[in-house]
Every structure is written in structure tokens, then in C-alpha cells.
Amino acid sequence: MTSSLVARHLALASAMPRPRRWRAGLITVAVLVAVGGFSALTDREAFSDVPSFSAELKPFPAGQVPTSKVQTLGNDAAKLKRKVDRLAEE
Predict the structure, then answer these.
(1) How far is the C-alpha of 80 from the C-alpha of 89, rounded, in Å?
(2) Cα(58)–Cα(78) distance, rounded to whole angstroms?
(3) Suppose 6 and one of 11, 25, 80, 90 were both cysteines; which one would form an S-S bond, judging by CB atoms 3.0 to 4.6 Å apart?
(4) 15 vs 3, 7, 26, 28, 43, CA distance in Å?
(5) Which three-class secondary structure string do you get for the chain?
(6) pTM of the model
(7) Rg for the chain, CA atoms, rounded
């Protein structure tokens, strides 16, 4: 398909005969495939199906973190404890 695109381009952009346009298209595609293949072979990292991520965690802006008072946290924890205790009794 790509060679046909190159051949069609050459048909519009040059006065080359048809066999020469197709040959140029095929050669272009072969060179691109070879360069891609060699690039994959010379890749220094071994192939892995597990993606690698950087381990650096960037700090989150403090102004965007929702906060509450310590007393509110204590009250919420007490309510949650009562609910869990009731569920454990059942």
C-alpha cells in the first residue's frame, strides 16, 4: 500500500515511466522497513511486556489538598468505629 502511495506521488510529481515509479516505491518501502527493523534490533533495552515508569513522585500543591480540623477527623473516626462495632455484633 505504501509503495502504491509513493508510485502515485511520483506519477503526479515526475515524468517517470510506470515501472520505474513502482520500483522506486518498492525500494522506498524496503528501505523504511529495513531501517525500522535495524532500529528495533539495536535497541539497548530488552523487550518486556511490563511498562516501566519513573519512580519519582512529584509533590502535590498544598493549596489543592482538602483539609479538615483534627476534631472533625476524630468525630468521623468515632462514627466509623461505632458502625464497624455494630456490624461486628451482627
Answers:
(1) 14
(2) 33
(3) 25
(4) 17, 11, 18, 18, 40
(5) CHHHHHHHHHHHHCCCCHHHHHHHHHHHHHHHHHHHHHHHHCCCCCCCCCCCCCCCCCCCCHHHCCCCCHHHHHHHHHHHHHHHHHHHHC
(6) 0.44
(7) 32
Tell me the mean pLDDT in the region 14-27. Answer: 86
Query: Residue 82 has which C-alpha cell?
Result: 461505632
Distance, CA of 86 to CA of 57 (rounded, Å):
39
Region 63-82: mean pLDDT is: 90
Q: Which residue bears the cell 506521488?
A: 9
In the numeric block, the cell 523487550 is attached to 47
Q: What is the distance, to the nearest Å, from the Cα of residue 9 to the centroid of all Cα atoms in its chain? A: 32
How far apart (Å, rounded) are the C-alpha atoms in residues 11 and 5? 10
Which pLDDT band holds residue 8 (cuts at 50, 70, 90)?
confident
